[in-house]
Design a protein that fits this description.
136 residues, 5-stranded antiparallel beta sheet
């Protein structure tokens, strides 16, 4: 599996995105990119869909270490986090598993970084799993 996820029950979509961004920040990540897939598909293809955002999360010190270890690692960065609204109104937050993705690189230093980043993202995921309507 290339990712892991949690589901937020009875949380408005925009609140979920804000909670994800804040949880990432607490673990040293910033959001470099925010792709609004719903808006893009509507604008380009006139397709309606549930809210769906792809957040490109980056921890600058860890990204720097990765780039130092392998200059082409940028092809696998940043760590994508998907926030999507389900048909039942709940919100799924899915995280790319950097440990799995970075196995593509033949470099033990990069593999160690993958484990480190995965642990941080799992903490973010765990912190979100307690969120429900009215808790944050």
């Amino acid at each position: 599996m290339y990712g892991f996820s949690t589901q937020l029950k009875k949380v408005p979509f925009d609140t979920a995105v804000a909670n994800v961004t804040e949880a990432l920040k607490k673990e040293g990540f910033g959001v470099l990119t925010d792709i609004d897939v719903k808006a893009t598909l509507k604008a380009k293809l006139n397709i309606e869909r549930q809210p769906y955002r792809i957040l490109g999360a980056c921890n600058p010190p860890l990204a720097h270490r990765a780039i130092e270890a392998d200059p082409d690692i940028g092809l696998l960065l940043p760590c994508n986090v998907v926030v999507r609204e389900e048909p039942d109104g709940n919100v799924t937050v899915a995280f790319m598993d950097p440990e799995v993705v970075l196995q593509l690189v033949d470099n033990p230093e990069v593999h160690a970084l993958g484990k480190e980043v995965r642990a941080l993202l799992q903490r973010v995921c765990s912190s979100l799993s307690s969120i429900s309507a009215g808790t944050r």
